[in-house]
Specification:
Strand content: 25-35%
Bound molecules: flavin-adenine dinucleotide
CATH class: Alpha Beta
CATH superfamily: NAD(P)-binding Rossmann-like Domain
Distance between the termini: 19 Å
CATH topology: Rossmann fold
Shape: globular
């Protein structure tokens, strides 16, 4: 029997699963309570490329992202994790903050040559970064957690206090759910849609996140190509919209002409849990550790934040 304190992790998206894995592998007995299973979380909708987008404060997000990068590189070397490294073109322009690249290992990123840029773009970085294929990676995390004796129950938590009895610790990874459960009105959704299309020809994976309202990205997965995106603040609609599918297809075709007229396999929408600052801290006066509000970078910062949670415990 473990002598370390029992922990209840709330939430089974990427933040909850990564924290739960870290804690249980450090020897804590861990139980997850989650309103919905991993495959129904925002995390399951994500393109899940390593790239700190809509995550604040930038300095901390960059540190957590760099720490996660190293962990993902290790996972990419193992079979069946759903993680691999890929070449990713980050379109940008002079004067924009590109500090995301500063914490990366030497050789992981270089300036793109003009002929590597889509028409109309003046600058870009080609980075070799991790991609987590969510349909494999989330089950992998859950299985890794279970193999250590971790347990999970699908149940909505309405009150935290009863979970804190007998010196138990609660780690809150409920993302947008923290609005209701912890009364945090500073966390809000940035609704994002992705369109999965059939893979016909090789494409360059890339992102243009320079302007609000004009987000575009192309991510080549093993089974399809994921196209995005939208960035609607305070929009709670989890249903994909036909109009957004059309906008995404048009925007991505402009960025990568090799896409042609791809066959649409599926459209999905998810609510990025945005907060002015990611909350990864111990609550004053209670045995609660928060880990939520990761915006558009929940995968990117996941291991850095999970390590922070472990330190806080
Ligand atoms: C279209 C789109 C594309 C994205 N692309 C990327 C990307 O390329 N790279 C990247 O890093 N990030 C990306 N993101 C962002 C990423 O998906 C999020 O930052 C991440 O999923 C947040 O994970 P989370 O575990 O904190 O929250 P969630 O995945 O939302 O999980 C929250 C969990 O808490 C549970 N919960 C909520 N309330 C309660 C309650 N009261 N009781 C019990 N359980 C509760 C939920 O059921 C769920 O399991 C993208 C997001 C979207 C929408």
């Amino acid at each position: 029997m473990s002598l370390l304190q029992p922990i209840t992790v709330l939430g089974a998206g990427v933040s909850g699963l990564s924290a739960a894995v870290r804690l249980i592998e450090a020897g804590h007995p861990v139980h997850i309570l989650s309103k919905e299973p991993p495959e129904r979380s925002t995390s399951a909708v994500a393109a899940a490329i390593w790239f700190p987008y809509e995550a604040e404060p930038v300095e901390k997000a960059n540190r957590w992202s760099a720490e996660s990068f190293h962990e993902f590189v290790k996972l990419a070397a193992l079979p069946d994790t759903g993680v691999r490294l890929m070449d990713f073109l980050v379109l940008t322009r002079p004067g924009l903050d590109n500090s995301w690249k500063d914490g990366l290992p030497a050789g992981a990123v270089r300036k793109a040559h003009p002929e590597q840029l889509p028409p109309g773009y003046e600058m870009g970085y080609l980075a070799r970064v991790p991609l987590a294929e969510t349909q494999i990676y989330l089950p992998y995390l859950l299985e890794r957690f279970r193999q250590q004796g971790g347990t999970i129950k699908i149940q909505e938590v309405k009150a935290v206090e009863p979970l804190l009895e007998k010196g138990h610790t609660v780690v809150n990874c409920t993302g947008l759910g923290s609005r209701e459960l912890f009364g945090d009105e500073s966390v809000y959704p940035i609704r994002g849609q992705v369109v999965k299309v059939k893979k016909e020809a090789p494409v360059q994976s890339m992102v243009d996140s320079m302007e609000k309202g004009r987000l575009g990205y192309i991510i080549e997965r093993s089974d399809c190509i994921v196209l995005g995106g939208t960035d609607y603040d305070h929009d709670y609609n989890r249903a994909p919209a036909e109009k957004d599918t059309r906008t995404i297809l048009e925007r991505c075709r402009q960025m990568e002409q090799r896409l042609g007229q791809p066959l649409v396999l599926q459209a999905l929408a998810g609510l990025r849990p945005k907060r002015p600052a990611i909350r990864c801290e111990r609550e004053d006066g209670r045995n609660v550790i928060h880990n939520y509000g990761h915006g558009g970078a929940g995968f990117t910062v996941s291991w850095g934040c999970a390590d922070e949670v472990l330190r806080l415990v």
